[in-house]
Amino acid sequence: MKYSLSQPSESLARKILNPVPFKDRFPAGRLKPPVGVLPGDVRSLPELHLFLEPDNASLPGINLKALPKWVEASIGDKELAESILAIVDTAANYVEGCVGVYEVVGYRLDQARGAIKETKV
Amino acid sequence: MTLYGYAGKILRLDMTNRKAIAIETEPYRRWGGGHGMGAALFWDFCKDKTITDGRNPANVCCVMTSPLCGTIVPSAGGRCEVVGVGVGQYPVSWFTRTNFGGRFSTMLKYAGWDGIVIEGKANSPVWVDIRDGQVIFHDAQDLWGKNTWSTQLEIRDLIKIRRGTKTHWQDIEALPLGESNASSGEDFGRTTQKPAILCIGRAGENQTCHAALIHDAGNGAGQGGLGAVWGSKNLKAISVLGTGGIKVHNPKALLRARMITKEKYVTSWQAPDFQAWTRIGRLPNPIIQAAPPTVERRPQSCQGCINGCRSRYNVGYGNESACQETFWYGPYARKVAKSRAEDTEINLRGADIVQKYGLNSFVLQPGLHWLEHLYEEGVLGPGRPIPSDLPWESIGTLDFAEKIVHALSTRTDIGADLADGWVQAALKWGREEDLHTGALQFSYWGVPEHGYDPRAELEWGYGSLMGDRDTNTHCFNYIFTNVSAAFAFGKPLRIQAEEMVKLHAKKMSPYAKDRPEVLDYSDANMYSEAVAQTVRWQQHYCRFYKNSALYCDLKWPDFVNTNVPDHEGATASPDAGEQVFWNAVTGDTLSFENGIEIGRRIWNLDNAIWVLQGRHRDMVHFAPYIYETVYNKGEVFPFFMWTCRDDKGRWHYKDLMGRSMDKAKLEEWKTIFYQLEGWDIKTGWPKRSTLEKMDMGFVADALEAAGRLGEEAS
């Protein structure tokens, strides 16, 4: 297994999958020539995951250093925050950091969806 | 005398009396074409140049081509410039400009016209049907209320132009709705083409401030609100069908320069360099902001373009849209999209919505962000201080996109207040604080920040401030995008900072020739004479080469080019520079610097019109947040890299985020700029001596008569 994240509880899974209030949003811009830097924000991990999905035409604009704190304080997922911090600290460059975060967030979302599904069963 | 490159006539449309009048192009030849010619026509035919709202019947709107339109000059043959007093700016709607691509300008030239001057106001909706020299005003009651796509299809049906593969040779005189007695006496030809139609949608009909002019599916002239000007004149559409051609002075030289462009400056088709640092030298690629919806697509471009930037897709949506309109809804679409494919579909269908309503989506980029902020803060919404019954809880859905665009285009819901200007609405709603905090990022003249923050990208900010609106001029900002992307990926820089600035300075004649310090945007140099020279160069270059000769803003200038061994781009080059193409088409013997000088003349004419409209240097300032807040480091992108010198004079790429603009120092910079331009430093008004040196004494006379001529001693 690539990540050593424990299975989230049902309540944490719901936090992982649901949006946070507007006041807790996290700034997230996008660089796309020739328009420039487009402002925006994310309010959930599913949205963050979609936002960070790599494409050939643009770059996500996000403060990777501040992201772990947001994930811990606003989403409430300390484990994921620590994983993100480790990825960002060891990434060779910004894009590598974004891709790493994209992958770990995707893994966490799968875990959360699985947890909700198991509860329903 | 043959006017090579020109059609030779300009069409005046007297909307009030529904009359068409042909005038000679020749007296306006000195202004080049496009913007320059349009500004000169505005000067001659607008009888009240003090108007500050483009919806005033006295306003004159000029739709202008250039000598290069309809030719094979790379990325210059298909642009069209529109000028006139705009709508919805703050505190004044200036004489302004907008521009679109496609095939309208080409068709207009083939019909025998270098431009159209729209004057007065019809008493009911009309559309204008131009077929070579024949011009007919038609009643447009049945078109009024239709979207821009339906309007164009309906006009094609009305004149029985067959669609798609059914096209065949048609004698245009035999098409229905013609008036045999309205003929100019010229022979009519035959064509396989469909007419080129420029029209407005509901945003224009309702005279809302960000109304655009739309041509074909996705060519929009959005900035300035000229769509509202057409609406105020009851002009729904202009349709053009031409069967003529353009006389090129030296076709051999034109072909040679075009081939040199392809073989020397453009990346090889066989071994393409997709990461090349160049503007003219890339391969065709859609510049949509979302992921492409499918790989099954065809490239689409303006006529004559060397590297088209749009696509048509087999999925049937997003066709011909490019750039910002394909992402105006992006930050919201991703809140509801379950996948990248759905995200793309919402974004591109959102583009279709604004195209059909004829609304400039740029206002929504920071504007919707602000409205969402007001909703989430409990200020805007049902039963709230700013009442709105739009379904704000479903922002991100296509349903909401349609409803917000409908409201803005029809003056309903919050659209009633926003129709006359967003900053005006903010003040009406008691939200002045948002201009100070940056919650409403409308940086200059009441229009949105573009994506290149003035606190970092100086020539963009200063150029917008000294001009009439968001400058939307992409001469230099690939420095930021290319270098920042290289840093983001950790890739080697294709061109180091010192080489970068030297290559630029080599081509920035006459003001900044071999002065690389003009691109030093460090804190120590940001208010300098050197940076003022960059702003001057850009404004003068653009006023002629981009806005008048109509070289595409996204492809020119080509300062640096990694497809070429010495990295020297095509701009100003003796083999394929802008002036080479101009001379080949027109027969002129223009030097690159001559073109800059014509641009200076046009820029001065613009400034004279602004002065007559009431401009004074005291009005020339950014929105308060530019001074009162910093460009937040890392908040929307981790860095904003630009060329800077350190305290030892060494060149580096440096991050410019984290700073604000100093208002007092900006005032000093304005004084420097006015001095360089030969304008009165107390008022910003042109001086007679400056104008007379450019053979513009008639402008000085008008300013003097209005009591608004700059003082010589200043």
Average pLDDT score of chain A: 94
Round the mean pLDDT of chain B to the nearest integer and report it: 95
End-to-end C-alpha gap of chain B = 44 Å
Give the count of structural domains of chain B: 3
**Can you tell me the residue ranges of chain B where pLDDT is under 50 for at least 5 consecutive residues?**
none
CATH-wise, what's the superfamily of the largest domain in chain B?
Aldehyde ferredoxin oxidoreductase, N-terminal domain
Count of spatially separate domains of chain A: 1
Shape of chain A: globular
The largest pleated sheet of chain B is described as: 6 strands, mixed
- The neighbouring-strand order within the major sheet of chain B is 2-1-6-3-4-5
Q: Indicate the proportion of strand residues of chain B.
A: 5-15%
Instruction: Report the count of strand segments of chain B.
Output: 20
Written description of the protein model:
The complex is a heterodimer of chains A (121) and B (714). By secondary structure, chain A is mainly alpha-helical. Chain A has one domain (10-120). Helices cover 54% and strands 12% of the residues of chain A. Chain A is globular and about 50 Å long. The mean pLDDT of chain A is 94. Chain B has 3 domains: 9-241, 4-Layer Sandwich (Aldehyde Ferredoxin Oxidoreductase,  A, domain 1), CATH 3.60.9; 289-430, Aldehyde Ferredoxin Oxidoreductase Protein, subunit A, domain 2, CATH 1.10.569.10; 458-556 and 591-705, Aldehyde Ferredoxin Oxidoreductase Protein, subunit A, domain 3 (Orthogonal Bundle), CATH 1.10.599. In chain B, the strands form 6 sheets. In chain B, strands 2-1-6-3-4-5 form a 6-stranded mixed sheet, with helices on both faces. In chain B, strands 8-7-14-11-12-13 form a 6-stranded mixed sheet. By secondary structure, chain B is of the alpha+beta class. The two termini of chain B are 44 Å apart. In chain B, a hairpin with a 2-residue loop joins strand 7 and strand 8.
